[in-house]
Amino acid sequence: MTRYALCAAMCFLSAGPSALAQHDAGHHAAMQQRGQQAMGFDQEKSTHHFLIHKNGGAIEITAKDPSDQALADEIRGHLRHIRSAFSDGDFALPAFIHDKPPPGIDVLKARRDRLTFRYEDLPAGGRVRVTTGDPEALTALHAFLRFQITEHKTGDPLEPR
């Protein structure tokens, strides 16, 4: 059981659902703070999306204010770094941001030569597309993206589109 799950369970057992909601809000706020530290831009001024595709997925980040060119440039720099790091099998940033290793990263590291990471500019940010024909890498990637969707509370679909 992860440290977060154990703590959440203890909150629920000792104080009930409202304590769990407070704990969840605190966990999310701490994650947002680590995200800002790791990514170098204000998380509250950006929108994250994690998209699951049949042959891979995508990470998209954009500035909420499309006229904020400085933020869009910071996002693009971060996503270029992510593309490079993930291509090299380095998933330290997501582990730091979430305070635990996301599911699937061991397989993604081991099978990185079977994944293609491509960066693309978006009008107010950027996108990293990940594709693979390898079933094991695809399953790991989808687990990683589902975790991101849940943790960041993006509301993105949990199944491929």
Written description of the protein model:
With 161 residues, the chain is α+β, with helices and mostly antiparallel strands. The chain is 53% helix and 20% strand. It has six helices and four strands. It has a four-stranded antiparallel beta sheet with strand order 1-2-4-3, with helices on one face. Helix 1 packs antiparallel against helix 2 and helix 2 packs antiparallel against helix 4. The longest helix has 23 residues. It is globular.
List the helices and strands and how they pair.
Elements: H1 3-15, H2 17-39, E1 46-53, E2 56-63, H3 69-87, H4 92-98, H5 105-110, E3 115-122, E4 125-132, H6 135-152
Antiparallel strand pairs: 1-2, 2-4, 3-4
Helix pairs in contact: 1-2, 2-4
Roughly how many Å apart are the termini? Answer: 31 Å
Low-confidence runs: 8-13
Number of helices: 6
Report Rg.
16 Å
Overview in brief:
The protein has 161 residues and is α+β, with helices and mostly antiparallel strands. The protein contains 6 helices and 4 strands.
